[in-house]
Each structure stands twice: as structure tokens, then as C-alpha cells.
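Recap quiz, item 2
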Amino acid sequence: MSVSGYLTRQPVRIVGLIAVIAAAGVVVVWQDLGLARLLTLGYLDRSLRAATPIALVAIGGLFAEKSGVFNIGVEGFMIFGAVNGLAAASLVSGNGPVTQFDLWIGLFVAVLISALLTTLFAVLMIRYEADQIVAGLAVWFIGLGFGPFTAILIWGSRNSGTVGRIGSLDLPVLSGIPVLGPVLFGASPFILLTIAITIGAWVFLYRTRYGYWLQAAGENPEALDTAGIDVNRVRYAAVIFSGTMAGLAGAVLTLGVTGNFIGSGMTVVDGRGWIGIVAYLFGNYNPIGAFLAALLFGAMDMLQIQFQTIGVPLPSSLVDLFPYVVVIVVLTFYGSTRMPSRVGEPYESEE
Amino acid sequence: MSDADSGRARDALDGAADRLLGATPVERVALALASTVTALLIGLVVVTAAGYDPLMFVNDMLYGAFGTERRLTITLRETSYFILAGVAVAVAFRTGVFNIGVQGQFIVGMLATTMTILWLTPFLPANRLGGVGLLLVGTLGGVAAGGAYGALPGVLKAYADANEIITTIMLNFIAIGVVFFLVDGPFRGEGESATRTASIPEYAELPPVLLDGSDFSILGLVATVGIAVLIYVLLTRTRAGYDMVTSGHQESAAIYSGVDAKRTIVRTMTISGMVAGVLGALFIVMHANAMPNANGINTYGFDAIAVSLLAANHPLGVIPAGALFGGLDAGGQYINVASDVPPQLIDGIVGLVVLFVAAPELFRMAAKRTGLGGDRR
Amino acid sequence: MSRKGSRTVVSLDGITKRFGDIVANDEVDFTLEAGTVHALLGENGSGKTTLMSVLYGLYDQDDGRIVVEGEGREFTSPRDAIDAGIGMIHQHFQLVEPMTVLQNVVLGQEPVDRGLVDEEGARAEIEALCDRYEFDVDQYLDTPVRDLDIGVKQRVEIVKSLYRGAEILVFDEPTAVLTPQEVEGLFDLMDELTKQGRSIVFITHKLDEAMEIADEITVLRDGEAVDTVDGDGTSKEELARMMVGREVLFDRQARDRTTGERIFEVEGLHVRGDRGLEQVTDVDAWAREGEILGIAGVQGNGQSELVQALTGLRPVESGRIRFAGDDITETSRRDRIERGIVYVPEDRQREGLVLEYDLVRNALLGNQTVAPFVDGWFVDWAAVRDHARDIVEEYDVEPPEPTARSASLSGGNQQKFVVGREINHAPQVLVASHPTRGVDIGSVEFIHNRLLELRSNGVAIVFVSSKLEEIQKLSDRIAVLYEGRVVDTVDPDDVTDQELGLLMTGNTLDGSDESLERRSDVRGDT
């Protein structure tokens, strides 16, 4: 689709986007923020790190919704991933210290368990045609219950305390590349992983036959059916992928970003699953768009730290709220404009 | 597994799903009780496995909930909160709107009540009568604020199709952040070193009346039960309530019958927010007496979702459900202090109860609301 | 022209297909000769789409054989039919709107090169195909389908089938969404296709088109094949008679001339449908007190949208709706209910009833502002319960227990309850959309009698039905709707079945050969 075609079709979004950028511009000038001081490499690095879990859950979620199933339970799946990753790592390390190897094992175990759990969920959604909103809420509640409970079983408390964090890469030649080198190749390996998954997802969706089928399943499942492809099989795959990605996102959060699990309140996941949903909506159901939107939210998340670093006197408790406000704005103005047409409707082949 | 076997397994699964679907109210109460008991039993198993004496645990829990007059008042106090919050959630869920934002609406109402009373204090006589005035106006303020904060996501959903689950979750965060900022800054009480407003005058607090205990007034419980009954009457006996509940079941039929769907959504969220506002007011005049740090307030609004689900979103059912949570909470507080069972374990058990109660009800709701051409989105 | 082919490419022998109690196809025989266009003509519900769906593998037949190119075949899915060289161009395009033409054409059959879709290869193939048949589709290969004209979209559908090597093409009501020029273009295309050896089945309810393009015409009626005639050797009257003609099974009662006031009228009404296209165009109609206005027409010609506009469930683009002299065009649904305009809805399970509710709670639906049931803020449930009981008794609803959950009632009983509830509203105007759909014969009679009773009590009734005999039996006047316009409003005593059939296909009764002119800016263009 051409850029000009896109622009002429989406006047409201373009206006909205320009308004947001203009507002941001006003704030920058008013507070004498000095973009050069604000947009540092360190800020980019922190934003990318913060963005990785959001981007991962967003890409998974968008695959599911594109295929016609709204997986609103991704927050719950993230919680499972978050706790299972660290729990597995702790268990594997036994009484000794937690090694990098243990942490990576934890990651794989978390992803595996997420895949299994999502399969059950997919059956409920597709075969039993459960109401997608309520079933998703159920998963969230289950996560909110099991997360801290698992934590108590493993660490004796809802909060795990510091367990360990997967360390930075330091790829010899690549990390020497000016500007982006240290960020992409010298820091958290998950940044690279996320970018790779984003590109892979984009290629899959727009360049492979399975991607075609996925898009058709959410827009016009009859067309796919009459073309001879099993619609529900496509949807199963998409939903399982979304839950697995959410689990990966949660594991990346605890194993790669925080190094610990918090089970109290909204848990360490703290709404990132919900933000991920809005991210892919904002990103127009496109993996690259979702990644960029996640980056934006990551940047918002880290804004408060950045402001502190460069000495901007805005109150931190308010700056912290930027991501949430942006979410509401996005939902209000961008909300359902580009949803796949047949989301939420179970599909039954005739006969 | 052969085809026949997998076919049979599938049939069994289908049969179970059907049973869950078609359960009568009596069966559902039984299911809720069974879930709760199961969760508690599992909790006991964990307690035992962790090396503590289960019988002592149960004993301590019961004592903690009912043992002395003081403990009873704590139970009743917590129960009041759970009931009110549960009613706020129930009214929304019943009518098809998923208000996850009761916590935010409650906190906003709480602040509004506090500030209204504080601002009005100089204008009213400093006696019981003035106190009653302050109390009433303060509550009105809380109700208005809670209602407005609830109406906002309602409007966004009705007119911009913004998913209310996500907007209310975000608004929770925003409420806590903004209220904290205000209380930490401009609204901070004079001379307060902690993040706290000034205290409301004593004569504006709700008096203990019958039981003498810790920050509890039987009037509060009465008011709570009264509101639950009021909402029940609203939903089952008024025309507005019929319109709301019908919208929740099948919006197309509601529209056919003349209901303005958009206005109904806003009305529902507003009422839900208003009840949350009452909770905020009650919390202040009965208990806290000043607006504390918003981050530290108990998550009644959130736990209330489980309360409501345990009650199958029935406003009267919320009363016993709230009592259960109130008892668990009070018992848990006692165990925290009096025994060496770690508080996390108790929280975990409560979490388990939430899980065992919420999940089946949610799955039942999910299974029920299918088909009908994607009425809900 | 007639091009009798030398061999039979498709033969359907004695196809029978049932859906529950309904027999959609009753031992239908159909043959298609090579290189010809064979039209399958019939009213809505006559079984034509079902027959072709069986051929295309969407349905399994209960009885009968499918023979393609001399071989007996069993199609379990469209894939099998596609493999056998059968392609279907559906009435509702099977296109994925946001995807490009190229992507849509290859969907399900994408050429793959090292894991990715081989776009270049596909492009070359499609362009070759387009050249061969002089399609213009290849210039749109990278355009998302949603940006395309309806005519182009249809050609994409055709290319889809050709790309899969279809020798036999089935067109399901292809001209429904086309302008007259586009229809000519389509017919030229069909000529080209048959010249190059393809065989075509053309499903339609439009007589003139069938006569224009088809070599052979098979008429279906009520699931049965009436006859197969030569495309050249027949006439419109003959076809209409075959399509619609039936024994007179009913008694049309003698009735008094209605002398009441015009109480319900619409003027110059324009209404848009769900997809933004205009579905009701410049409609004038009225009903008097004590009169039944029947709205006839093949389903999908704007009746639903018209009824929704009348009852306040859909906004009006332009035009006026008047009730008892008041302009009610902008009034809400509830306001209209309160004025006494009730509605028996088309979809009782979505609109007429809340399935989760028992009959008592459903009795209140629509009655929320009606006196004995609602007093101020409160509902008098005792009164509602009595009302429900009354309805159940009067309308013979089974089971006679008002506390039964509505979902457990049969379709017919649900409908009886809804009809009863609306009639018991003591309305001034009753709008009914397919009120006897899915209802057993005895109850149909009962409902008809109640409607006639209402009529003699001075109620104005507007009712839509696809059952021609029902319309003829009950109506004082019949307005025939075609493509959103009123073709004509006639007195049922003055028209024959054939004439009604002609009207329903858009032909006026003055004998002219032209179909009604369709304004191109209204239909079809995006």
C-alpha cells in the first residue's frame, strides 16, 4: 500500500498523531527540555529494554486478533511466563547460585509451559466458542492467583527477591558500530531477539502463504474456507502463538529486565499486557507498527527516569502516568477503526 | 487414543461444558461453595506442607475473625468494604459492562469526600449537628466524584467504542497517581510529615454506636447492606434496571425494545462509580479520617471483582460473599500478628480462593454468552 | 443465440437436499452442455443456490449423483470441486478486503519459492490469463480489493476461478450489484468464456437476463425442477408462470373497502444499509387505518432497511415518515413504541426475545413504558406475569409455562409469543417482518386471523413477507420493492401471480422489455 494512499485514507489518525506530536513539542519548549539532552543513547537503550516485553506480547496478540480471535488474556499469560521463568531458573539452580545457564533454561521452560496453557485456552475459545472477553478476563484472574501462589511455593513469599538477570551480550565486532552498535549488540540480548522476531513476524504475515491465510481468517473466513483452507486450524495456530509470545514476554520481563518477580498487586507485569494490546492497535495490526508503538510506550515508561537524569522538575508521580494517558487517548481515537472485520465471531464451516 | 476414544473424551468434555452452562442457581451456589472450600483446603495443605499446624491455623483464623468484640468489628468493617465494592462491580458486570476500575473510582471518591469535608468545616457549627451535615455533604461529594470518574470510561465506551476493561485499568493507575500527587503536595495536611491530608474533625466521623471496636460503626454496615438492597431493587424492580440488565444480556433486543444503548452504558458506569464513591466516603468517615497515601490503600476495588463473581454478580449475593472475604481478611490480619505463619502464605490462600471462585464463574459466563451473532464485543 | 454443445460436462441426477424438515432440493435433475450458458432460474428460496452449493462441495447431498465430465464424483469440500475444475463466483464476494488482488487470486493456492510466496511467478501467470480473456484485472494486481469497483471485484472473483483451472464456472446472482453497462460487460465476458470452451451456470431470478444470455434455462420452484427450456424459444410470461405459478390454495376473503384515514406514510425515503450503500431509494408508501399494506419482493431488495426505518431502528438519509399527521422521522424507537407503532421483528431470536429470559421477563420487552406494567419508576411484575400468561393462553404457546426459559421454546412458539405480545400492545400501527417464518401451518392460520381481526379494528398494518400467497391473501394493497424502489403498488384482486412475479423482478406491468433503470451513482460504486 502506498504512503499517499495511506495518508488520504486516515485523516483522523493523521490529525490525531500530529496533535500529539505538537503537544509534545509544546511541552519540550515550555520546559526548555532540549531534545538533545532528552533523546540520549542511554534513553534509547532504556526505552528499548522497557519496550521488549511490550513488543513481544503485542506481536503475539496481533496475530491472534488478525486471525479473528481477540486474546484479551495476554496479561494473564504474561504473568505465567514471568513467574515460571524465574521459578524454573531457581529450581534448576538448586541450592547453588543462579547461573546464566539456569536463567536461559528458565526462559525455555516458561515458553514451553505458556504454549501448553494457551493450547487449552485456544480450545475453549475456538471449539467451545467462549465469549472472548470473559474468557480472557478469566485467564488474567487465574494468572493473578497462580503467580503469587507459585512464588510462595518456590520462594516462600509473593515477591521473589532478586534471582538473577540474563546478562548483556557483547558481540565483538558488531557492538563496535557507532551509535546503534552498543545498544543492539552490546546490551540486552532481548533487544536483538525482539527485533528479529518483529522482522520475522512481518515477513511471515505479508510474504508467506500462512500470513495470507491468517489475514483472510480474520477478515473473510468464508473466503478462506472456500479456498480450501481450514479456518479454525489457522486460528488455533495464531492463538497458541499469541499466548506463547505473551509467556515469552513475561519471561523476558523477569529474566531480562527486572531480575525478580513481584506477586503483589498487579504483579511485576503491571498492566504491560494491556498496554501491549493497545500497542498493536496503535501500530495498526502490523508487527513493525506494534514494535514502534511499544517503543513509544517504553519511552514513556522511562521518561520519568530520563527527566530525573537531566533535571526536569516535573513531578515524577505525574510523569509516570504518561503511558496510561496515551493508552486511553489511543483507544478513544484509534480504537476500532481497523479491527479485522470478523474478530470475535466463531467460524463454523457449513457441514 | 483411537478415534472412538477421542470421540468419547470429546463428548465427555462437551457434556461437562453443557452442565456448567445449564446449572441452576442452586447448583451455582453449591459450585461457589465447593470452589471456596476446595481453595481453603488446598490452602490448608500448603500450610501443613510449610510446616505449620493446620488446626492451629484454622483456630487462629476463626479467632481472628470472630474471637473478640474487637476482632468482630474488624471483620464487619472489612465486610462492609467488600460488600460495597462488590455491589459496584456487580451492577456493572450484571449489565454487561466490565468495570475493572472500582479501585480508582473508590480512591477518587475518597479524596473528594475528604476535601469536601475539610473545606466545609469552617462553615458549619462544630458540633454533632454540624458533623452530620459535613458527613452528608462529604458523602455527596464522594458519590459525585466517583460517579464522574466512572462515567468517563462509560462515555468513551459508548461513543468511541473504547474497550472499558483497558480504559478502567488505566484509569486506576491514573487515579492513584494523581491522588497521590495531590495529597503529597497541595492537599497535604499542615504539619504532616507523611503523605496525608489533614484529619476530618471528630464530630464528623461515624460514631461506633453498638459495638465498640476499631474504626467501625454499625451504621456503616447498615448503610452498606442498604445500598446492596437498593441496587437489587434497582436492577430487578425498576424500569431503568430492566433496561440495563437487558442491555447486558442481549443488546439487540434491548435496542428493539426502545432502550438507548449508549445512554444505558454511561448510566451503568456512573452508578457503579457512585457506589464506589460511597465506599470512599465510608472509608474516610468510619475509618481513616484523613486521606492517606493512595498507593497504600487496600485493593478492595480489585478484590471486589472476585466477590462479585462469587456472588454470580447478584447484588444480594454480594452480602454473604463480602462477609467471607471480610472474615478471611480479618483472620489473616490476626494470623499475621499473632502466629508465625508468614503473611504471604495467607495472601496466597486468599488469592487461591479468588482464583477458584472467579475462574469457574468467568468460564460459565464465557460459555453462556456465545453465539447470537457476536452481540458482544 | 443457442449453442448446443456436443457433450455434457456436468450432470446432476436426482439431487435431494434437506435441512431439517425443509426440502431445499427435491430430486432435481440438471445437465450442463459444454460451451454453453445454462441459466438456473427461480424465486428466492427455490433451491438454486443450494443446488449449486451441492455441486461446489459446500453441502453433501442426501440423495442423487454428481457426474462431472463423465465421472461420478463426491465432493466433500470446495477443494474437491475446485480440483474437478468447477469454480464458483459467489453472490457475496469471497474476497479479503484489505489484501491485494494478486493475494486474493492466489489465496489457498499460492506458488511458493523458498518458503515465501512467489509473487513474480503468480503475477506472470495472472497477466497471461488476463490477456487471454481481455480482462482488465491485471492493472489492479497491487491494489487492495476494498478500493475497487464492484464490477472489478467481480472480475477478480472470476480470475480466481480461472487461475485454479476452472472449466465450469457457476455465477451466483452476478448482476445483483451491477449497473446496466456492467451487466453488458459481464455478458460479453461470458460469451468470450464460452467461445473458449468454458461452460457456465448462471443462477438468477431475473427473467430478461436469463433470456438474453442463456442457451438453456432450468426453472426451479420450491425445491423442484419445473422444466428446462431453450433460451431462445421461451417467453417472459412462460418463465414467470413456471417460476411463480401455483395452485390457489387459499381463500381470499371478501372484505369491505377500507375507508379510514391515512395514518402512516413515507415520502421520498432514502435509507442506507450497514455497508453504507443506499438500500431504500425514493420510496413513497402509505397505509390507512384498517388496511393491510403488503410489501412484496425478493429478499434483499431493501425491505429490511425500510422496516427498520419505519420502526425507528435505523436512521433515515432523507425523506419523511409521518404518523397521524406528525412528522416522526427523527423520533426514537421508544417514542414510536409509545405512539403505538409496534414491530414483529424479522429476527425473533436477536431482537424479539432475550433468550436467557423467561417469558414473563420477555413480556416486558417493548412494554417498558406502558401503563399497567410500569408505574413511575417501578415495574409491576405481577401485572407482567398475568400479561405473559394471557399471551401464552391466547396464542397457544407451548409449553404453557411462562417461567420457562425462552431459549427452550421451539421457533414457532417463540414467534407466536412475540406476535401475541406485539398485538396485545393494542397498537395503532403494526409493522411485521416475515411474521410467519418458521411457524407451523395451524399457527400461521391463527396469526393471519389475528391480523385480519386487527385490521377490522382499525389498525394499520405494514407487513413484509417473502411468501407471495400470504401477501396476496392478507393485503389490501401490495407494494413491490425491487432494488430499493417501489416498482408499483397494486391491488391483489387485480393482478395475477405472473404479473406479481414480473414486478418482483423489476419489470413494470406496461409490457415494456426494459428493466427499471438503475441509477449508477446509487448502486454499486464505492
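Residues 100-127 of chain A form the longest helix (28 residues).
Chain A touches chain C at residues 1, 5, 203, 207-209, 212-213, 215-216, 219-220, 222-229, 341, 350-351 (CB under 8 Å).
End of item.
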